[in-house]
Amino acid sequence: MFDFTVVSESKKSRARAGLMKTSHGVVETPVFMPVGTLASVKSLSPEEIAEAGASIILGNTYHLYLRPGCDVINLFSGLHSFMNWKGPILTDSGGFQVFSLAKLSKITDEGYTFQSHIDGSSHILTPEKAVEVQISLGSDIMMCLDQCIQYPAEKKETHAALDLTTVWAGRCKKTWKEKGENRNALFGIVQGGMYKELREKSAFDLVKMEFSGYALGGLSVGEPVDIMLEMVDFSLPKLPLGKPKYVMGVGTPENLVELVALGADMFDCVLPTRNARNGQMFTDHGTINICNARFKYDTKPVEEECLCYTCRNYSMAYLRHLFMAKEILAYRLNTIHNIHYYTKLMREMRAAILNDAFDVFRKEFYRRRREM
User: Fold this and answer.
1) Would you name the residues annotated as active-site residues?
2) Domain count, the chain
3) In this structure, are residues 303 and 12 in contact, taking their beta carbons and an 8 Å threshold?
4) 306 and 167 within one domain
5) Where residue 60 sits, what CATH number does that domain have?
6) Cis peptide bond upstream of 152, omega within 30
7) Range of 326's domain?
8) Residue 163: is its pLDDT beyond 90?
9) What is the spatial distance between Cα 56 and Cα 51, in angstroms, rounded to a whole number?
10) Which of 77, 108, 274, 319 is deepest in the core (most CB within 10 A)?
11) Whether residue 17 is found in the same domain as residue 154
């Protein structure tokens, strides 16, 4: 079961608010998905993730296929029961992880052959296998297997990767129709590097295949932010208005505001969780580093107006003490606040779109940052 409806659109930008219905609940868009690569958003329980405001999380096919393995997850009839998460789950196909983590990986027309980064064991990840694993995981939204390339990349190399991604998308769609269409959604991934004509070709070919939704891949891989935004600005209008549009692996709060303005609906990024473990906290007025000496005697919370568990109960002096002492609680409390901040930002953008005041929200967002 999957459905997406646009319920409101901004009159002064392409920002839009939607409802995405899945077997495990309704997701309001625009939405940020915390990254739970290994069936866990690092340092938090599923209950804490939900309390922090997250409605959907992300898992990863490559990692979960290798450990604990589908045989273990099948004992629980899927990832939801295994990790006790009640809401929807999106799973990435694993192609990027093979590209970036696996030892001695090799790509052919058939798929990826690679050695596990864990124990060196040999594996092959084909488009068919990627979909079958994701069906086994029981994810609400599955991603097609795509070929990832480095930045920068020559046009010839980018074109070849695009063509292979398109062929693989067709094979993923065939497997999905045969084995999982009624239970899971399947998104196609637009590739094409930093070349507009290749992005347009990829979008055109994927739209003809009619997927449940569409993602922009191969962005936020080291290119300047202005180029990333240019590619998104160009690519999103090439995708169907009535389907969810997902920009993968992005990004900072500023990125999210700009990408929502361009018409994106869905996002994921490790920033709020990874940076929390490095002592960086996101606030309405910008980012702060909790290890800064000026917080040693600060009795205030990270944000006075914030309603997250961390800000309701703890001071910056205490958070700094925990972080400097390397206490595990530091990572937990920092992560709770950052996820709450990201989900709150998305709710505020949605409310502004529904009130046709997104341009006002956007100006206020940057004004607050200038005040820091």
Assistant:
1) 92, 268
2) 2
3) no
4) no
5) 3.20.20.105
6) yes
7) 270-372
8) yes
9) 12
10) 319
11) yes
